[in-house]
Write a structure and sequence with these properties.
By secondary structure, this protein is of the alpha/beta class. Helix content is 49%, strand content 9%. Strand 4, helix 8 (150-159) and strand 5 form a beta-alpha-beta unit.
Length: 435
Amino acid sequence: MAQKRLAGLSLLLGLPLWGLAGSDVSPAAARLHQQALVVDTHIDTPQRLLDEGFDMGPRDTQGHADIPRMKEGGLDAAFMSIYVDMRRYQGPQATQRALQLIDSVYEQVARHPDQLVLATSAEQVRRAHQQGKIALLMGMEGGTPIADDLRLLRIFHRLGVRYMTLTHSLNNHWADSATDEPEHNGLTDFGRDVVREMNRLGVIVDISHVSDRTFYDALRVSQAPMIASHSSCRALCNVPRNLSDDMIRALGENGGVIQITFVRSFIDQDYADAFAEVEEEYFARWRELSEKYADDPRGLRQARRHLRQEYRRKLPPVPWQRIVDHIDHAVQLVGVDHVGLGSDFDGATMPDGMDDASFLPRLTQELLNRGYSESDVRKILGGNTLRVLEEVERVATGIRDAARLSRRQRPHAPHQLAPPTPVGYPSFEAVERSP
């Protein structure tokens, strides 16, 4: 009888039976998870949409995210990553690639209008939740697609991009990456202009992937809260992609949020150390696959997936509870108002027991087990991210209102739009750092 009651509750809440039936997620935790607004700030599914013709509608046997598993996991809003590989695309080609990825997100919303909605604000996310739909937002991973042209940044904002990661695994022409040799000593003057324009538009400044110097430069320039869309704590896993305690504190003082990522090599030191021993071999094979499948994006993603799985079997296990260890550490540093979730689903190797989006209720249960209040859990699951969205828009409105007032007071001074910055586009040979 008890088993039947749990099964009925699972169906009522739309949660996976595996959790409740196995006492992994209690009815109380399941109820809280379903009522909360759960927001993930980094999902790489658009690569599958574009390169594989993937449809999010049916349940899939591969990858981490589709509509059925997102619903089972109570995932209400996801920032779809508009990621462009800097090694393959530069200049106009990078811009084209980003536009194609954005189109792939629009197409999924058009294909499943009863289950998906495109959102650009916290209000729209809340409305989608009330309607029982999943809100898809967009974040651009790396500034390469703007091709050093603020006009393109404005166009991407009009298309719905609501955060931009300043760099990816390599430096671009105006910002240094955490995983490349320093070139600009942080942000260039144009990079600072990019941050200012993002503030004016209402695009969140994302500092995942950037060098420490770039982080502090962006912090000094930005008038709005920033996020780290998918980073964890360097004190627990010492890799450049994670944030130091001082950086987390500074981000909290800025009003921003560190979105804890689930990536195995960013949450477990033993795994990161073991991977370092095979890193050269791994990336040599990664490069070979890139050459072999240069004209076959779908084949390349499949081959890379198999490569990740092969090395996952060779390396130490990583329990999913490590995610909550990083949440705990960040909360102890800056409080519960500055921590969220940025899984990197469909973009990296997940820890054991967090196999896909349907497993997200485990986080709610574990947070409750560790003594977090229901109010605090709601903040971590998505409330903090929605607050940043609202604050960034408020700052943008203030900047634009001040500019209009200034123009009225000086009627003969025309409004100047920043011109594009012409540059060349060198080739790059480095590879991404996450296994």
